[in-house]
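Try it yourself: sequence plus glycinamide ribonucleotide, in.
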Amino acid sequence: MKRVAILISGGGSNMLALVASMTGDHPARPVLVASNDPVAAGIAKAAGQGIPTATVDHRPFGRDRAGFEAALLCHIEAAAPDILCLAGFMRILTPGFIQRFQGRMLNIHPSLLPKYPGLHTHARALAAGDNEAGCSVHEVTADLDAGPILGQARVPILPGDTEASLADRVLALEHRLYPAVLRRFAAGDRRPILLP
Ligand code: GAR
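Structure, out:
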């Protein structure tokens, strides 16, 4: 059985979708949910599911990213995960951290990568006049939002869509895509999943 640690910064809806999926014959189980934001709503939700949680506030570390990561790593290593899932984790990780989990760290990003890495993905898709949007799950490498794609799901952009309406529609899709990719990845299969 693979052990999965999930890093979050916010509401944790993707985290909950991953947790809900890891039952029965699923080849993985959640062992830790950790956040850089001590009041991230997802932490209480994870605790409510009986999952061990940890928070390491990044703010006292200032620009010392390595110091923040060392503190976070104490919790992660104690949980001995095989796989690390970033699920709305909004801190950039150092190459050293990424190297440590090379080939074992996944991220979900709210765009059809390689389009729109970084922030404000939905606003950028709308501003560009795109007719579709979506989300991607990828392996985390040293290049931001640019590792090998393990899954993608697309939705049409509708007339009258706003950043909020598009984000809602894509988020619902994220909740289907990420669990599907994790299940396959945990079983050792890296073939990309394309939804719908
Ligand atoms: C999700 O839309 C996720 O794709 C995005 O943050 C949201 C987190 O929601 N992640 C990024 O933008 C990463 N750069 P959640 O906390 O409810 O899962």
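One thing you can check immediately is this: The chain has six helices and eight strands.
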